[in-house]
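Consider one such protein record:
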Amino acid sequence: MPKITVPVEILARHVRLSSKGLRTLFGEDYQLTPKKPFSQPASFIAEECLHIDGPRSAFDNVTIIGPLSNATQAILSRSDALALGLEELPVCLPGKSGGGNIKLVGPKGALLLKDGTAVSKRLLFVNAKDATKLHLEDEQVISAQVNGPRGLTFHDVHVFIGEDFRTILYINMDDANAAGLGSSAEAELLI
């Protein structure tokens, strides 16, 4: 099979909000203001940011990715979790229960997240047409290799297929730093 490469996007810490979370943090009838498009269709990086308080430290200006989600979730790197004082934060898929004990603070209120904080697994979003060509299945687990000054093979990459998805490998900042990746990296899929 020929070499298959996909773009890599490095995800920094961010929050996805539910409608209840949005109301609690920003007030009734508030709507997020899109600042710029995110890499997937209909998704955006919001103008608004949040403050995260952890047991040991805090982060200001944490990005919110819209649109609204079914559940409020904070996605961190392992380094972020340790800095906040979250020693046992689970690695899980988006939307799945996490752990942690952090407080999200917005201009109109605060929200305690007892099980909505996680380190995200590595994700490969794949357009349905690409998935057919590549013989990939939804929820399949594969590996991906990146080259460069500190080339690495990432295992446990979870595949998500969608009609409108752009085909992109998402990794967190810890993975990117370990591999020495910059903003225009590519990965070879090992299927």
The chain has two domains: 12-120, 122-190. The first strand starts at residue 5 and ends at 11. The two ends are 10 Å apart (CA to CA).
